[in-house]
Amino acid sequence: MFWAETGARLLAADDDGWLAVLSVGRDGARFVDARDLTDAVAGLRPVENLFFDMIERLTEEEESWDGDSGRAFRTGTPRDPAFTDPSALERPGPR
Hey, CA dihedral for 50, 56, 57, 62, is it positive or negative? Predict the structure, then answer.
């Protein structure tokens, strides 16, 4: 796990702006002063890109919405399978 002030964008893996890195293992977790984040950041880039694609679509939808209509702004974009795994939206049935 890692934390950074990113301004909504992931930093480069070798950036000095990372605030903290928590190393998690079988025996517990501890904060460490350095860790190679290359693979972690590379793995998150596609998710970051999807997030910004979703924000772009939401912006277009909101800009085309008539705020004076009295209708609430509604969108299904965050639940679109392009952005969210449908299995994450499944609700367990009654037990």
Answer: positive
Q: How buried is 37 (Cβ within 10 angstroms: 0-12 exposed, 13-18 middle, 19+ buried)? A: buried
The continuous run of DSSP H or E covering 4 comes out as: strand 2-4
Output the six-digit token pair for 81: 């399978």
43-83 pLDDT per residue, tens: 989 988 998 999 999 999 988 888 888 888 889 998 899 98
Which tokens hold the place of 38? 């290359």
Q: What is the pTM of this model?
A: 0.67
DSSP of 7-55, one letter per residue?
Answer: TTSPPPTT-TTEEEEEEEETTEEEEES----HHHHHHHHHHHHHHHHHH
Q: From CA 58, how far away is CA 67, in angstroms rounded? A: 15
Residue 80 DSSP class: S
